Amino acid sequence: MPGGQVTNALTIDVEDYFQVSALAPYIARGEWDSRECRVEANVERILLMLDEKRIRATFFTLGWIAERYPALVRRLVDCGHEVASHGYGHQRANELSESDFLSDIVMAKKLLEDISGCEVRGYRAPSFSIGESNPWAFDCIERAGYRYSSSVYPIRHDHYGVPDAPRFAHQVRPGLLELPVSTARILERNWPASGGGYFRLLPYGVSRWLLRRVNELDGRPAIFYFHPWEIDDGQPRIGGITPRTRFRHYVNLRHTEAKLRRLLADFSWARVDEVFLGPTLRGAAVTA
Ligand SMILES: [Zn+2]
């Protein structure tokens, strides 16, 4: 088994390039239906890549996508992957009222369960948008019937992050675990070690070193994430965006698939439920 004995959780946030939070100021929600949709083809590429390595992963799928592409959801199930929820409309949890957030995550769960025929146990908030300002979101996630959330990024970042949040799996409500995406602890600071733009930006060796720290120094499974659009260099370029947003969204798209292939080979990977919903976390302390 590659990467020692620790099995990590591989996650994919299934949304299209025009639904990304950083591009939200430039693409009105009402335009989504008129944009060229590339998510199906990109997910197929991911499925091939995973199948070659016999890896099963967790796909946090947007309800909006599932509703329009139900065959994509069924493909995930047929290939042995876990279907989890990324909410319905990709609105940040901290920009919704409590009741609107609850409706969004209840609707997404039901839609995904109806299409997949499987219980949907996991939820990830768009842009890791659960933090100190909206702890009520965990009450909603519990009430909606999810068993775990992976919605907190314990780092400092301009769009998301809670730098002093717990770094590892913990129980946030009775029956609900929070599984923060991974960080490496270096010089008394948390550094992003779990994918997204950082993975595209950093040389692969740095990402590998950070993840190994989580596995070997902390002795914990890592949670890594990426998006289908991050392997798609052919996606339409959105005009009029700031240089900073352009850099963050488009940097190294061409090289991401090759990097991901190395990552899949160098570590051991499985679905979130396989890694975290075992008996080991029972009895973890409840933290509000
Ligand atoms: Zn997202």
Defining traits:
single chain, 288 residues, alpha/beta, TIM Barrel, five-stranded parallel β-sheet, four-stranded mixed β-sheet, 10 helices, 35% helix, 15% strand, disordered C terminus, binds zinc ion
Structure, described:
The protein has ten helices and eleven strands. The protein has 288 residues and is an alpha/beta fold. Strands 1, 2, 3, 10 and 11 form a five-stranded parallel sheet that branches. The N and C termini lie far apart (37 Å). The model is unreliable at 280-288 (pLDDT under 50). The structure holds zinc ion (ZN). The site of zinc ion (ZN) has 5 residues, from loops. The site of zinc ion has 5 residues, from loops.
Radius of gyration based on Cα positions = 18 Å
Q: Could you say which small molecules are bound to this protein?
A: zinc ion
How many domains, as an integer?
1
Termini gap? 37 Å
CATH superfamily: Glycoside hydrolase/deacetylase
3D shape: globular
Residue stretches low in confidence (pLDDT < 50, at least 5 long) are: 280-288
Name the helix and strand elements from N-terminus to C-terminus, one letter apiece.
EHEHHEHEHEEEEEHHEHHEH
